[in-house]
Amino acid sequence: MAKLAYYASLIPGKTNWFYTDEGFRLFKNTPIARSGTQEYLGREIKSHPDYKDEWGIGDDEVVLVDRPASVVSAPKTLASFEGKSVLDDHPPKDVAIVHLDNDHEYNRGHAENIRLGDPLDNGDITILADLMVKSRDLIEKIEGDKRGISCGYTYSLKRTDDGQLFMGSIAGNHIAVVDNPRAGIEISIGDKAFVLPDIALYNEQHEFSEAAP
């Protein structure tokens, strides 16, 4: 079984929060997405290239879109989020997608060790990631309780005969830290708030590793 090791120190009183010699923060075991239904405004759905006028969805109508467990857990979906940029909020709507020519403007870190997590109480499956944040500003926001996670991704949109909308072919683009995650409070950076430590006080650095699924 492959092992993934980080060189980082556990922040006192924390379970999943670590810091590196460079002052970066590692937020391990962070749920970044889940399966199941989520609410979207009609205007969001109508902007998707797969939308069909005959669906007759109003701009302000609230619709449920399902992300099937089989799609969320697909190896291609998981692989697509590996190494993607961590952002402080999503990029503007006229940008939407992070790419080679604009990543330098929005990138605040990266996600790695993407894998499936434990299901939620309602049975929805989750995707976990370890987030390496390299922005002092975003670190301070996370420490100040901005911890929701919202992924940016592309997908295909389909509709069943009974009108249920669902996603397919999900491909991750970025992972945004937000105030109000659409997926719910379960999809957020875990651990209680803490006082920012003085890095100089912690001179002993140690390694830890875990089995990667």
Describe the overall structure.
Helices cover 13% and strands 40% of the residues. It is mainly beta and 213 residues long. A hairpin with a 5-residue loop joins strand 10 and strand 11. The protein is globular and about 55 Å long. The termini are close together. The model is unreliable at 193-213 (pLDDT under 50).
Largest sheet: 10 strands, mixed
| Helix vs. strand class | mainly beta
Overall mean pLDDT stands at: 87
- One letter per element, helices H and strands E, the order comes to EEEEEHEHHEHEEHEEE
Low-confidence stretches: 193-213
Work out the helix count: 5
Shape, per Cα inertia axes: globular
Q: What share of residues are in beta strands?
A: 35-45%
- Give the termini distance in whole angstroms: 8 Å
Q: What fraction, in percent, of the residue positions are helical?
A: 10-25%
Radius of gyration: 18 Å
Q: Could you give the count of β-strands?
A: 12
Keywords:
10-stranded mixed beta sheet, mainly beta, 5 helices, two-stranded antiparallel sheet
In brief:
The chain has 213 residues and is mainly beta. The chain contains 5 helices and 12 strands.
